[in-house]
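FAQ
Q: What does a multi-component entry look like?
A: The components come first, one per line:
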Amino acid sequence: MDSWQSILALIALAAPLVAAAAITSVRLRGGTLPRRLAILGAGLSFLAVAAALVRIRSGGLDDELPLGLGSWLSIGSHDPFRIDFAIALDLPAAVLAAVISLSALCALAWSRDDAKDTSDPLLFIAASVLLSSSLAIVMSTNVGELFVFWQIASVSAYLMRSSRDDAPSQAAATKKLILVQRVAEFCLFCAVLAFAVGYQTFDYDELFGILREHGAGAHFALVHFIGLCLLGTCAARCALIPFLGWPEGLVGGNALAAVLIEGICLMPAGALLLIRFQPVLQSAVAASAFAVLLGGTSAFFAAICAWSEEDARRQAGFACASVFGLIVMGISLGAASANAWAVVLTATFVPTSAAILGWFASRSRSASLGDMGATAVAVAIVLLFSGICGQGGVLGTGLAALARGGPLRHAPLALALIFAACAEFFAAIAMTRAILAGRSVLEVGAPSASAVDGALSQNVERPAWPLIVLAVCGAAVGVSGGALMLNSRANAGMSLGPIVLAGGNAIATLIGCLPAVAGFVIGWQTPRRVQDAAVAPDSEGLLMRLGRNRFYCDALLFSFVALPVRAVAQFARFVDWFLVDGFVSGAPTSAVEAAGLMLEPAQGRSVAFYLASAAVGTALLAAVVIWLRY
Amino acid sequence: MFQFAVIAVALPLLGTAAIVLAACVSDDRLAALHLPTGSRAYRRIALIFTTMTFAVTLGSTITDLALGPRGPEPFGGLFALVTAAAWLPVIYVGAERDRKRPAMLYGLLLLLEAVFLGLFFTDDSLLFCLLLEASTLLLFLLISGWGGQEGESVARKFLVYNLAADLFVLIAILGLVVARARMSTEATTGLKYDLSYSLSTLTQDVPRWSTDEIGAQEYWRHARRWLLAALVFGLVIKTPLAPFHTWFSGAVSEGPLCAGLALMGAGGRVSTYALIRVAGPLWGDLGTMGDLLVAIAVLGAMYQSLLALAHGDLRKLSAHASLSLTAIAIAGIFAQQLPGTIGGVLLALGGGLASTLLFFAFGLLELRFETRDLSVLEGIWRRMPHLSSALVIAVFSLIGIPALVGFAGLYPVLAALFAYEWLGALLAMIAGLILAWSLFWMLERVVFSPQAAVDGTAVPPTAARSNDLLPMELWLIAPLVAGIIFVGIRPQAVAHLIDVSIRIASFTP
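Then the predicted structure of the entire assembly, as tokens:
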């Protein structure tokens, strides 16, 4: 990179860290200085990234070499495990960094509403470190570096949450958060080690060069192992199956932490990881087929959880989590347009989900649509959940892939597409209900029947303009999708003309947006699920019960992982006490003590006896030594 | 370097002499001179001499870092520095039991420090064995004399196991001395039977023996097997790896806090040092034995992690966490690759710092709240932010978070294990995962759980900070925290020091 670009990249990374250091050094409890310093750090970071972005667009600096920051630990002359720190600010990285830093800046500025937040320096220290490590993940140039910042981001999120836990349930949610993140790090570390052993390098360019040149080739098993490890990392980070339940408790806690963790920094990193390692997924066909199915299913499960929830904050949390399933599906489809849509969706997700989650997490009750903030959030919901920013495109591309066949098998792809379409539908219903009549049951109690009736009657009079906006946006998306597909025509190797292709994809994308539109309509018409008081909760529909129980993901993890490990730990403790300590370790001690007891009668003899014994012993020892020597 | 070593060993001995002298002077005379009396006087003397010792060992390491190593001593110097840093809290928590024979307690503690430092600095193999025995006996006296209700029984177990381990090490080292004498040129020509006890000489000659004439190779192949078996067995007990670990957890949980801290900070590092310094040159190609040792170490790490998860006692939790990390370090050393060796040393050093910090923080909690039960302690974050921060740093270092020393050790060890046998690395990572689970569970309960006030509401962040770390305690943990962060951020400097010094001594595996 040229010197100005290097300085800007360094400022972007270092500004939040300097802010964190400043907050630590002033050690103020109370007051607004910690928050202001954190805002200053995020603001400087955004300005630097924005300036770098402008320079890239105007000066053609996209292909500059990365800026090396030194090696961390290198053992031996050729160490494949060496971690080099370097940053690269190409166009995609600059765009994502700008989106992340701007969203974080807004979230920090917004946290003023929550008076409790402004008094805890640790919250803002951790938030600044989280922002810096997230930017470093985006700008990283090798796998080792990514792994380091990945862990730092997890720990920062943990500290952000843990310092603000006000209830045991929140403390438990925080512990669940960090343990799931440790699982993600475990998977990522496996991938990192496999990269080093299999390819002898961590550098993205070298790795992807080898993969593009040779494909899976001789490393078929290795590539699939790495692909599955990366998928596991993404699943844990993005709350896909089977880690669906960990974000549930987060939205109920501190608003700033919820926004930064779920919307801006932590969960989107999982999607960024898959986008970054897309060549690996393309090489690992079996792993990508699994990823498509996992993405579609997770999106559906999360959307059902959102739909079955009555707490608006949790509805928003789960609905946002469902978007990650669609992103993972889009990345794993293998088509260039699906990848492009997944990237667009990720970039859209960060600011819109920040707005949605922040608004819901900081509100104890819903506001009317006349409220300016609520209107902005409604617009964000439309952007994120109508399908116009990616889901429709992903679905459309998936349908096209299904129609013409491809490397993926039909059955998993079809199943994933059905799940994804249903996910769009249910997520749209959930979010429409959340914005129209979402009331936090946890905070204001269950709504009375009259309140529900009032909300229903109020909503009947609402205009249908969002639907018109959605339809227009859908058409625009179709055209954009077609244009994106045109770019990938050469790779697809298709013989169709560009106009036909564009039209076909436009229609496919529009079809992809339809489930979300239908969901909005249903949600608009019935803003709250009317429950029959006579119907017992356990006689609800299957989907509702599954959603309420989070598809038993937590229960299964508890039953098949946590409980057995704890049982084995207790068994180990018993074995340690009874067998190891009692018999194995105890035996030598007992033997020595028994020998001591046997020798007890000899202890009452005279001094002459002991002296004579010592002399005899010495003579014997000398005889043995002489015999050995000669 | 030599002067630094002599001064570092001499200072605690002088401290012991000063305590003996102070014990001979009556309290009235001390009071007349406006000096502290009783146990406070002895503790103050011990702290002064320990601080001076720490300064000397720090100076020694800084000199090595600046000028580069000129021999194998810097390798031991790093262990000595960790010991000296750990000894500041060791002396401080001596206050827990110093109502009973305080002069003897602090005198023994200073003597033990001198013994450990001498052990890390000496190049004489017989002196090494002698100091190993001395450390065992001194720790036995501390555990039995100042331990809790079960103190005597755990002290007996401690003595039996450690004496057995010391005996195996002694036999192996004497065997090595004799083998060297028989393999030396003079012996083969029948001229002279040269006995050398210098560790450097012994270890430098080992690589040559494998290339000597056929008869000598045959002899060495047989001798090496038995010597290595004895040495490794002794050090496995001394480390201790499962199933020989019960003496360690017993001594840590039932002994006085100062003895537990001494074991965490220095006692648990001796075997790692000896494995590299003494056993390393004998490695050769371990073959199946290497696989077996790695398997024992990795399974031992997993076992210790499970025990840490099962225990609700703070002392036992920290003991098993420390043992788990030590077992992973040993596995890295047994993997016989340079990254594993250096990572193992870094992990052992880092484990010493982090375990000492964790145990010290637990000890302070125990002294303040008179309990070490996890289920009783809760929510200290808002009342004791400094102590909580120390706990958090120690836990993060133990589980291997980047920018702390634990990661600098764990990363190369796991990488070497992965290159050696991927299954071993996987099991070690699972052990680390379970260890993280147990430690985060502890953090959730003890540190971050919302602490309820009398009326049932959560204590606000602005609640009065009672019982937090005193300024003196902050100063005592400062070297530990600084070491954890410095090596975590700049491990290359220390790794280079280890690498070069072990190459000079020719005991690179």
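Q: Is there any commentary attached?
A: Sometimes. For this entry: The first strand of chain A starts at residue 67 and ends at 71.
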